[in-house]
Design brief:
It comes from Pseudoalteromonas porphyrae. InterPro entries: AAA_dom, Bact_polysacc_biosynth/exp, P-loop_NTPase. Helices cover 33% and strands 17% of the residues. With 234 residues, the protein is of the alpha/beta class.
């Protein structure tokens, strides 16, 4: 997981969005996985910590457990959201307070939105912000926390989209599912880290048309290859 430096303007804009909604419980979610949702979650946590806020990340992603660098510390005690055991199983991990699904008991009860909401309310007494790192919106798994379970506790949902990975159809489908699950405040975070540089995409487009205009496309490709600035990643 690559963290975004706390001084980056992109993080400031996300934090401003959180503040404008007065959101204390924020859900981070990708469309299908690997779009950078967990990285954004951890980066926002560190940014808020740097501003003096007390932040807790709750890992609710059974497909790809939350991890920064080294492996998670092993936990021996079972916990659930229906009692104080969730507060007793918070660990300090890479300078971030983390409550992970590891050793979560009563998996079915966490799918009850009232139980989850009551548990989040207790944690809010100790933390300024609760960040929920969720499983991908478009992936189905029996261990997933369903989207509707978060409708009571989540003040803001940040859906990460990766250019060059996701398409408009999958984005519309995910937003529709979130709205159907009663998520009211949804914001789209667009990431370019997997988007090919402009030069690469221009050459690919020209090569696809090379059979029609071989001399012209060869001339343009040579011109583009000499413009090194077109090949720097965003």
């Amino acid at each position: 997981m690559k963290l975004i430096p706390v001084q980056y303007q992109e993080l400031e804009e996300v934090c401003n969005e959180i503040n404008s909604h007065q959101a204390r419980c924020i859900t981070f979610m990708s469309l299908s996985g690997e779009e950078g949702s967990s990285s954004l979650c951890a980066s926002i946590a560190r940014r808020l910590n740097a501003q003096g806020a007390k932040v807790l990340i709750i890992d609710l992603n059974p497909l790809h457990p939350f991890q920064i660098g080294n492996s998670l510390p092993s936990l021996s005690n079972e916990w659930c959201f229906s009692d104080i055991s969730c507060q007793l199983n918070i660990v300090k991990y890479q300078h971030v307070d983390l409550l992970t699904m590891q050793n979560l008991s009563e998996t079915e009860s966490v799918k009850n939105k009232q139980i989850l909401n009551d548990g989040i309310d207790r944690l809010k007494q100790e933390y300024d912000y609760i960040l929920l790192d969720m499983s991908p919106a478009l992936k189905r798994n029996r261990g997933n926390v369903p989207l509707h379970a978060l409708s009571l506790c989540s003040d803001l949902t940040l859906l990460t989209v990766a250019l060059g990975v996701n398409d408009e159809e999958s984005l519309c489908s995910a937003v529709k599912n979130l709205k159907h699950a009663a998520h009211k405040h949804i914001r789209i975070i667009i990431g370019q880290h997997k988007f090919a540089p402009l030069g690469v995409r221009m050459i690919a487009s020209l090569k696809a048309r090379q059979h029609k205009w071989p001399r012209l496309t060869r001339f343009l490709i040579n011109k583009i290859n000499r413009q090194q600035w077109l090949f720097h990643p965003y």
